[in-house]
Design goal:
This protein is mainly alpha-helical. Helix content is 73%, strand content 0%.
Length: 495
């Protein structure tokens, strides 16, 4: 039986590598091709790539696990995310697609900021790149933790003994496959695999809750109200004001996630952004509903059938292994790996682009050829992956916790900066630097001092809230206190 499951996963891995080889032949001749697929992504590919790279392993592990443990009150995270995604597609997507091309054909977010505010160009590129690499290393580690948990839970003792635990072997296998197709095919490979992975994820999230509720051992969801957790189906049970704010403000993070908004830069025309938005939001709504249903139905099934689940974040893995034919189980595990790998590959590529374009070409080899830059980018992908493996090696790590910290760091550092850079004529380079540094420092300090929330039942406030507010205030205050350079005024976008 396990052989059929492994065979399904093997087919999935081969398909991802095949896409990487296809992309290698199509779009890796120069930096624009390797980093942005030549700005020629079809709307559907861009939309599902943005969604799949956003909804990482937390969609099939962290969010269902939170619902499994605490009930429907945890849905506020998903609600906040959906509202934030809507605003991101409306406010940021069309403007970023247009302005990154008009401001010197910028290939990265730091490069766009430098072109937008040339008086502080070098500072913005360096600080932005540092923030991206640091937080994305943590974010990538969260995805690798998900891969480790999958192999540890589903294939315990089945994989060959190579001197490491199933958890670590899972991390290494996950990282190895992602590295292969990302290093080979660049942004096009990442985007095409994201599209396929997004479809797989959505299908799995629709099928799984229905089978859990209506299949063998299910009861059509009738036992949901019988789960021995007070207010399990209530959106407000045990909800504090800080808990509510901490949950719904996850949506603020969208404005500052480089691996998501870079997809907007790659859509083939500005006019097609609306089509991409409709596709992306439909996919996201269905997938989030499936994840919520997975957590609730999974808990009801476990209570009804006396199933013991030690780690709530593994409920998807446990039920996939228990309820389905091994070949289908392999498909469901592929969906989980798709969620994990789509995000990891996007994060590795964005980190690599920053290291290459905003360090290597800026300081070390200003006249580096396109081929050299592409090869350096591949090396940087591997370096960030190794650092993430080291962070993920702790088997007690929680996917949702690592994602929450990295998400907040990006949202606070880049969110206000991106919105105001795209929409406000009065913003200055000094204000941009102040906002970037303030957001990152406040969010990081909040985490370090443990003032952040342990969601919806714990004390504290999610660090994205103070970080986002502080960065916005810093940008406005410093911009008003400084003078725009003539070139910045002349090139600033219309209000």
């Amino acid at each position: 039986m396990e052989t059929a499951t492994l065979a399904s996963l093997a087919v999935y891995f081969i398909a991802m590598l095949g896409i990487g080889l296809y992309a290698w032949k199509k779009s890796t001749e120069d930096s624009e091709g390797y980093l942005l697929a030549g700005r020629n992504l079809p709307p559907a590919v861009a939309a599902l790539s943005a969604g799949a790279s956003d909804m990482s392993g937390w969609l099939l592990l962290g969010l269902p696990g939170a619902l499994y443990a605490a009930g429907l009150v945890e849905a506020w995270i998903g609600i906040g995310l959906f509202l934030g995604a809507v605003a991101n597609w409306i406010i940021v997507a069309p403007r970023l697609r247009e302005q990154t091309e008009s401001y010197g054909n910028a290939l990265t977010i730091p490069q766009f900021l430098a072109n937008r505010f040339p008086s502080q160009g070098t500072t913005l590129r360096v600080v932005s790149a540092i923030v991206i690499v640091v937080f994305f290393t943590v974010y990538t580690a969260a995805g690798l933790v998900g891969g480790g948990k999958l192999f540890e839970t589903a294939f315990a003792g089945l994989l060959p003994n190579v001197g490491m635990s199933d958890y670590m072997l899972g991390i290494v296998i996950t990282a190895g496959i992602v590295l292969a197709y990302t290093m080979i095919g660049g942004f096009l490979a990442v985007s095409l695999t994201d599209f396929v992975q997004g479809v797989i994820m959505m299908v799995a999230l629709v099928v799984m809750p229905l089978v859990v509720m209506f299949g063998s051992g299910g009861d059509g969801g009738e036992s949901l109200s019988e789960v021995p957790v007070e207010g399990f189906l209530s959106l407000t049970e045990g909800l504090t004001f800080l808990g509510f704010i901490s949950a719904v403000t996850w949506g603020l993070g969208y404005f500052g996630q480089p691996h998501i908004i870079v997809r907007f830069m790659a859509i083939d025309t500005v006019e097609k952004v609306k089509t991409a938005r409709n596709v992306g939001l439909t996919w996201m709504g269905i997938s989030l509903a499936g994840a919520l249903g997975m957590g609730l139905a999974g808990r009801a099934y476990a209570e009804r059938n006396g199933l013991v689940v030690d780690d709530p974040e593994t409920i998807f893995i446990v039920l996939a292994d228990l309820l389905f034919h091994p070949a289908v189980t392999g498909f469901l595990f592929a969906a989980l790996l798709a969620a994990i790998m789509s995000t990891i590959s996007s994060q590795l590529l964005v980190s690599s682009s920053s290291l290459t374009e905003d360090f290597y070409r800026l300081f070390l080899r200003k006249n580096a050829s396109e081929r050299e830059a592409v090869n350096v980018g591949r090396i940087c992908v591997a370096l960030v992956a190794v650092a993430a493996i080291v962070i993920a090696s702790d088997p007690t790590s929680e996917v949702l916790g690592l994602v929450a910290n990295a998400w907040a760091g990006f949202g606070a550092a880049f969110g206000p900066l991106v919105i105001l850079a795209l929409t406000w004529r009065g913003m200055t380079g000094a204000g941009a630097v102040a906002g970037l540094v303030t957001g990152a420092v406040v969010a990081g300090t909040w985490i370090a001092l443990e003032w952040n929330a342990s969601f919806l039942g714990g004390e504290g406030l999610y660090e994205i809230v103070p970080g986002f507010i502080a960065a916005w205030i810093a940008i406005v205050a410093v911009s008003k206190a400084t003078t725009q350079s003539a070139e910045t005024r002349a090139r600033a976008p219309a209000e």
